[in-house]
Amino acid sequence: MIPKLVAQAYGFDAQTDIRPLGAGHIHKTFLVVSAPSTYVLQRINHFVFRRPDLIMKNISLADDYLKKYHPDYTFLSVIRTNVGAAMVYDEEGYPWRLFPFIDQTVTLEEIHTREQAYEGARGFGLLTRNLEGCEVALFAPTIERFHDLSWRYEQFEQALAQAGEDRKTIASEAIQQAVHFSYLVDRYHQLISSGSLVLRVTHNDTKINNILFDRETGKARCVIDLDTLMPGYFIYDLGDMMRTFISPVSEEEKDLLKIVFRSEMYDALVSGYLEVMGDVLTDAEKTAIPFSGLMMTYIMALRFLADYLNGDVYYTIHYEGQNLNRARNQLRLLQVLSEQLGQ
């Protein structure tokens, strides 16, 4: 059941069919059938995204730009309330928003084929490509320093300094591995400080389940989950695709021997991304393509490990040591990527 205030804001009545949709861990999402239309209604978790107004501002800016310069591009435009607002707040202070439901589409939780990797990368790349030329300075960070590797390493060091001896002992091997890869922080800092990377509007959360695929053709139809649509570097998007597309298992896998480098997936996702971004990226940026996968995998390893050392205060866990296992998983993937990509 959704709050009455929210239903009224969008003109839903007792005959409107509203049911839970998906299994997201951050927001609460509902499918709304109000004949003849179908919508997706979402309650934003304002504890994770403390400035939901910035999220909606960024989405509106992108929507306006795309409607003007790429009117045929499918973008998830927000549906406004009866009084023209982008969101409505309920009695508990949670913001709610409404999007159209895009029919005949599916989401994927895993990459099984080259075509899926190619289409997914092409879909995320096309969003950035179509926003090329918009005024990046107008977009605000919705999560500060989200993919700043230097800051994530500082957080890891702080967690290590404050952690109890028992957790440091249990995680000693993972800690050593994390410190070993700290040279990536220097490389990241050099890329940023040298101006080798161009700041663009990027998605910043390019897991495969954030793309809608056409049910019949398998082509990418629409990018979703736009909460982190904000200024970023291409290495954030391409790197997170490498992190999540290349291995056949997820970050939850405890059997590290199952983490392997699927070269066909790497080739497919780079090819798909460069098909739409190849003439946009500079030569200097293209040399950073292999680094992007290492950098984003390292970030997640550091975040999981820091959370374990801090006592599991950020990521939800379902068993003791889960964040440490996630960190070990990502460190193993980092090692595999490093060996294969020569970084």
What's the structural blueprint in terms of helices and strands?
Elements: H1 4-9, E1 17-20, E2 28-34, E3 37-43, H2 52-69, E4 88-89, E5 95-100, E6 105-106, H3 114-130, H4 149-162, H5 165-170, H6 172-180, H7 183-193, E7 200-202, E8 211-214, E9 220-223, E10 230-232, H8 234-245, H9 263-277, H10 283-286, H11 289-309, H12 322-341
Antiparallel strand pairs: 1-2, 2-3, 3-5, 4-5, 6-8, 7-10, 8-9
Instruction: Report the mean per-residue pLDDT as an integer.
Output: 95
Strand order of the largest sheet: 1-2-3-5-4
- Euclidean distance between termini CA atoms: 51 Å
How many DSSP H or I helices? 12
Structural class: alpha+beta
* CATH-assigned homologous superfamily of the largest domain: Aminoglycoside phosphotransferase (APH), C-terminal lobe
In the CATH hierarchy, the third-tier topology of the largest domain is known as Aminoglycoside 3'-phosphotransferase, Chain: A, domain 2
Number of strands: 10
Q: From the structure provided, what is the oligomeric state, counting identical versus distinct chains?
A: single chain
Unreliable segments (pLDDT under 50, ≥5 consecutive)? none
Report on the biggest sheet. 5 strands, antiparallel
Order of helices and strands: HEEEHEEEHHHHHEEEEHHHHH
Helical content class: 40-55%
Strand content: 5-15%
